[in-house]
Amino acid sequence: MVTVGQAPTLDQIREAQKRIAPFVHRTPIYSSELLNAHCDAHLFFKCENLQKVGAFKARGAINAVFSLSEQQAFRGVATHSSGNHGAALAMAAGRRGIAAHIVMPDNAPAAKKAAVAAYGATIITCKPTLLAREEALAEVVSRTAAHVVHPYHDSRVIAGQGTVGLEILEQVKELDAVLVPVGGGGLLAGVAIAVKTINPKIEVVAVEPAGADDAFRSFGSGRLVTQTSPDTIADGLLTSLGELNFEIIQSHVDTIITVQDASIVEAMKLQWSRLKTVVEPSGAVSFAGVLEHADRFCNRRVAIVISGGNLDLDKLPWQQ
Amino acid sequence: MVTVGQAPTLDQIREAQKRIAPFVHRTPIYSSELLNAHCDAHLFFKCENLQKVGAFKARGAINAVFSLSEQQAFRGVATHSSGNHGAALAMAAGRRGIAAHIVMPDNAPAAKKAAVAAYGATIITCKPTLLAREEALAEVVSRTAAHVVHPYHDSRVIAGQGTVGLEILEQVKELDAVLVPVGGGGLLAGVAIAVKTINPKIEVVAVEPAGADDAFRSFGSGRLVTQTSPDTIADGLLTSLGELNFEIIQSHVDTIITVQDASIVEAMKLQWSRLKTVVEPSGAVSFAGVLEHADRFCNRRVAIVISGGNLDLDKLPWQQ
User: Fold this and answer.
1) I want to staple A182 with a disulfide (CB 3.0 to 4.6 A). Which of A166, A206, A304, B271 is the partner?
2) Residues B111-122: what's their mean pLDDT?
3) pTM for the whole thing?
4) DSSP per-residue letters across B5-38
């Protein structure tokens, strides 16, 4: 799958906001006096775990699918995904009334396959390697002429994810910092463009698991590093940054910090017990950044993006 | 602890709504297309698990504490509680700036004791029997002259809980039924008065665990039955109805249905995974009513009260 387009502008993110509004939730901001006291900061949790399909991915997928011309759309869309993007694209295609072809590795959880199928998409299974996924997708595209929507190497997707940043600025006044998890970088890039273009004084902080720290290393060295052998509980953040997102991040993100898996689990449990909201490991990474780097955020007004809430309740990380 | 007052009127519930508004959340209504399809009904989940202290109990406690005259209040308040009412009363007293004395059994979970202490209340521990609790409370009252606030045998508490019903009618139009869990009956009585006085056509359905079905048996026989040896996962619904609430329920509730623990666990998991919201077993009882009695609610617009979200994440009922 190749990169589509250039970095979106603030205007394009605003257009995306209008385009997706009928199909996605304006998710709430949660706060907790107890967590504020615990962290000695003012925390504003942006609950994208309450988004359609349980993750921010609904925004980018809807924006991409509804940006297509009739000509582009009528043969349907396709992608490969083991996670939330597949379900999001299936949902978006269903809303537009076009076909979706989702290539999924044969070891994808049954619950994720069921979610994709429930939205009416066609599932093509393949071996669980990047090569097999790319080949299967190429075969689907050659057979169906479906339009490929990449999960994050795509300007329309980045613009859709950036609407999270617009909403945060509408919902919380006088912010000092925004914390965003980074995997492929689409959410981070979109939010950073929105926030920094509107108010450059707000610090944009990316948070990455220490066991999959390619963005941290790329940002520090100024050269795009590919992630090999990621090892983290945050299964949504295993992928490497793409070139487009790396460029955006270099110019719009203030810093990248890393967190240990133990902090991610602690963040999950605190959010579950105090906010009563179900957060997946990848979704808890940004709050883990506050827990592990407390001094940096002391007494500040900090937005924390909870990116998703999809996980297997029978395999919780604090259970043996 | 004795019953305080008579059944509250709709006007008293409306006064309670104004009185408590500065201190409690107007909790959201959640909905899910997938759960609607799963149940073949239109479901509106009233999220009192997102209330202050994680349960509707905050409403009744705030209303009781802020209904006290200066004369009544200045020596503080007291109660015995192993659960959410203790934390709610501690919170309410803290907001008013008066003392709270909470008698707790010595086997109460450490997390619950910590929550009560965090609100600045004094904890008095005792043996885990009703007699020991009553005695310890009597001793506290004779020593401090604190004002006792019972968790549900109290008109001010019932009026506070009834504000849940007012909010549901404000938030959801054209309802056919409201499902409410029943333990001591304060929430059920308050909601039933609010809903039935405003719109008698809306069916008020109480849901009770089959393993603690004293309300079901009392309602069926017309005579107040005391619960002995309750056996259910819904640890917030073990207590028996009081006389005042039984009278209110007889005149304002349409029916009481019971649910098995297996349905309660299924309801919990569906709410956690689909609504991304953390519901305690007692809080899932009303949704279990829809799952176990599906025909009754088919194609209807049904409000479901999620009463609370406080539980030990290390001991989930679907884990061994």
Assistant:
1) A206
2) 89
3) 0.93
4) SSPPPHHHHHHHHHHHTTTS--PPEE--HHHHHH
